[in-house]
Design a protein that fits this description.
By secondary structure, this protein is of the alpha/beta class. Helices cover 32% and strands 21% of the residues. The strands form two sheets. It has a seven-stranded mixed beta sheet with strand order 5-2-1-6-7-9-8, sandwiched between helices. The protein has a two-stranded antiparallel sheet with strand order 3-4. β6, α6 and β7 form a beta-alpha-beta unit.
């Protein structure tokens, strides 16, 4: 049994598959006992509920970063535009009120710290080791690479790097997250713990551990 509110999760706007969500929850349940966690791309909070519930249950903390103006494909006139997330007065997408309502409905305000900003800006002065980093922000090559390069170095030994929306076949989806996934593996710092649909889970090696294909 878990403390996940499945009824709430089903109501939240988002693109996370339930199986992927449960994998997030499982990994976060392990990571939350090691230290604070970070999510990049909270949107309306569907993935935040999975991660944040694990944080609350383990008395941990989840930081979640999003500028809340929507990604490139969510802007007015684009394929994933949602008029319910559009602020007519400002003439911009605004998902932050939806995230706040999600956190309140899920009793997560004591475990989740929302940061309304861009990922690279927050990373400039970040110094806290993280037990988990979940990359699910912008899907351009620049955005995905910046998220990886800014935050992967803050993952503690034994901590986890999770990357969403990985499509190995270009016909199925964008290639930026897959590119970042390959970079992480090529770095020699992470072992691959396998995928759940489009969610990849990697773990940073502990000191003294080595990838099998690298010289010792």
């Amino acid at each position: 049994m878990t403390g996940l509110d499945k009824t709430l999760i089903d109501r939240i706007k988002g693109f996370l598959d339930p199986e992927e969500g449960m994998r997030l929850y499982g990994v976060a349940s392990e990571a939350a006992g090691m230290g604070p966690m970070l999510e990049i791309g909270s949107y309306c909070g569907k993935s935040t509920v999975y991660l944040g519930t694990a944080a609350r249950e383990r008395k941990g903390v989840l930081f979640t970063i999003d500028h809340h103006r929507g990604s490139e494909e969510q802007q007015y006139g684009e394929g994933y535009f949602d008029p319910e997330l559009y602020d007519d007065k400002e003439g911009k997408v605004d998902t932050f009120p939806h995230l706040r309502r999600t956190l309140e409905a899920g009793d997560l305000t004591g475990a989740v710290v929302p940061i309304v900003s861009t990922s690279p800006l927050v990373a400039k002065l970040w110094a806290t080791p993280l037990s988990l980093v979940f990359i699910d922000g912008g899907h351009t090559f620049t955005a995905a690479f910046n998220d990886y390069s800014c935050w992967s170095r803050h993952i503690m030994p034994g901590g986890f790097l999770l990357i969403h929306d990985i499509f190995k076949d270009p016909a199925e989806g964008g290639q930026a997250p897959y590119h970042v996934y390959k970079l992480a593996l090529a770095s020699g710092q992470f072992r691959d713990l396998g995928m759940t649909k489009t969610l990849a889970v990697l773990q940073r090696y502990l000191p003294g551990e080595f990838p099998e294909d690298l010289p010792r």
